[in-house]
Amino acid sequence: MAKRYTANIADTVMFRNLGKHPSPHLQSLRRAVAEAGTEIWVPAAVYHELADTGTADSPVNPYLDAAIEDGWLRVATPLPGNRSDGFDPSADQVEQARFVADKFLNQQSKYPETNNWTDAAVVALAVRLFERNTRIRVITHTADANLARRTNGVIVVRVAIYRYGPTPGRRYPEIIYNNHHESAVGSQSGMARPESGRFAVGRCSGAHPCCLPAWPH
Amino acid sequence: MSAAPLLSTITPELVEIVAHADEYPAIQRVLDDHGLVTFALKHALVNAHSEGDVMIRQMAELTGLSTGTTYDLVEALYSILQLGGDSLAPTIYTPADFDDEESDLRNKLLDE
To answer: Looking at residue A24, which CATH number applies to its domain?
Structure first.
């Protein structure tokens, strides 16, 4: 049976809880990621949300820059689409997914309409990874139960929803490590099923930035 | 529906939270910069978040607070109010947790 590889997409809250570099929690996550043979992905919108724009000419990110430099965290190239342009049915599936997720989150909300473009980026990035990698499962990490549930309504992914608590940070390496064990025993539990949705799995060219060098195709 | 119905009155719980302002700078910062009304709205929204009814970025937009301040305040209120339960383990949603009707929502949405 062909091995599947796992992409972990992390939302802002995960790094807010782990703290700025240097942080023992970040180091624990780095070790867990290395043991699991995976990487963490964030949308560009999440990078900018965590960045300290301050007075510097270019943004500095005290949460992510060290991990990027160490090579275990990747910032996705900007996703297509402009919210103000509205939904375009002829656009590619990544862009469509972002619009659908944005609208979907408002449709399900009890409150006035909001701009969910950054939340929708998490969904769109999952779609991009599905499109460009043939054997992949995607786990998104967030603290928003609504996003977790609604994401599964738009695209079938596995979602880990975290709670705030008295000891933030310790749980994150644990889930990555659990995932590692699932892969090792070939469990199908929680396997992403992109083929079951309209977001079909595309064949990876092997040259795209989303294709991890350590991930055979 | 507007966010206004979420506004709480000055409840004992709200008073208890404000009493923790020394421990959590975000509380004092919001009170100083935005006042008690915004703080009360935020408090109500954090409770809604713990029920899965609102997302953190939606809370920021509904209250007019920055996302950074929102994250700080959510963390403080979760800690003070002991929201989220005792378990450190995350809740895991898998495709099997959602029935066919829910997973077809994308198609329904696009058909509208």
So the answer is: 3.40.50.1010
